[in-house]
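Hey team,

Sharing the Methyltransferase family protein run so nobody has to redo it. Sequence (209 residues) first:
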Amino acid sequence: MADIDTGSNPFLRRSYELAGAEDAAVLYDEWAETYDADIVESMGYVGPAVAAARLAELAPSGVVLDAGAGTGLVGVELAARGSYTVDGVDASPVMLEKAMATGCYRRVEVADLTVRLPIDDAAYDAVTCVGTLTEGHVGPEALAEFVRVTRSGGHVVATILDPIWEPKGYQAAVDALVEDGQVALREADEHPYRTLQDVTCRLVVLDVR
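Structure output:
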């Protein structure tokens, strides 16, 4: 595991040691009830706000796929910033129940982000992925899938933990998409992520060709 501060939270430590989508579903189903309090209030989790604010600057409306939606933190942040229709996918059905209960999602669906998504090409104006492209979760291969389901002229906005950006192949995956002409890299800058633990992320913004 990369050197990432997990504090004293056992769920967060387990989350960086997951063995696949089924393992993720078990963990996040267990964590769903206290997740928001644990990660937002106790750890200063600002990733959803950072990503939503950037997408709102680029496109204040549209149909968005929230990949790795969890309890719906990104959907809530988007609803506060623009006029969006948001669908969510995640490995955890209990987390998705929480997301749907926010009232910020059109629909949610259980899905494995490590394989091809059951979504048509160019179905969305944008894809957000916050907190999921990380240690023990979803690898860099998912970026190409996010691009596939985003229309030409749309955006992929994702957070990737800074300590794994290069070592775990995310930077290389982005470079490959750029070289293949599928996207233009707008930015991959460092941003706050969990402010009470001094953990940062790369906010990756891809413009889909």
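Helices lie at 10-15, 21-31, 35-41, 47-58, 73-79, 93-101, 142-148, 170-179.

Ping me if you want the raw files.
A.
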